[in-house]
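User: quick one, fold this
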Amino acid sequence: MGFSGFPDEAFLFYEGLEADNSKTYFGRHKQLYEEAVRAPMLALTDELAAEFGPAHLFRPYRDVRFSKDKAPYKTHQGAFVEVMPAIGLYVEISAAGLFVAGGVYSTAADQIARYRAAVDEDLSGKPLESITGALADQGYELGGDRLKTRPRGFGEEHPRIELLRHRSLYAGKRFEPQEWVHTPEVRARVERAWRAFGPLVEWLSTHVRGSELPRR
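Assistant:
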């Protein structure tokens, strides 16, 4: 079946999971998760695949081995279209609504070095400044892991110091649950956002690329 929107039950499921993040709750509502959350997300990403490529749906289970928070389940369902490792397009639903994003989400040391070199160089840094400025003008927020201080080797007077602080960089927008999230309009909104993120993803794919270092 084609994508027709996310039912209200999807958001009610996550409201319940936030209140009771337990195996008991998830077990009792697993069918609801499959029907109201996972199935619509699969249908949405399947329809988007022709233009943007196939998406990977993340598992609902958290890896709690090294976390102080032992809650076993994620309180959102995300899907990621990978252009290069950790670089691509993202969509997510949760009790807070719909979230769309595009960019680079985690970086190794060699990627950070290439990113900063490209931001520092006018020929590549100025285009990124224009891309991020245009996204901000369209109402998208810039996010990512950022240094509170300036990166080593760069002065506070650098014209792109705010971009240089980033260790990862993405643009995104959150939509609160409204009537349209229950309709096929979701697809049009995600398409519009992902197209807007295209220049940022392309810039990152060109200048940051995948890591050449082994990941732990």
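User: anything notable?
Assistant: The mean pLDDT is 94.
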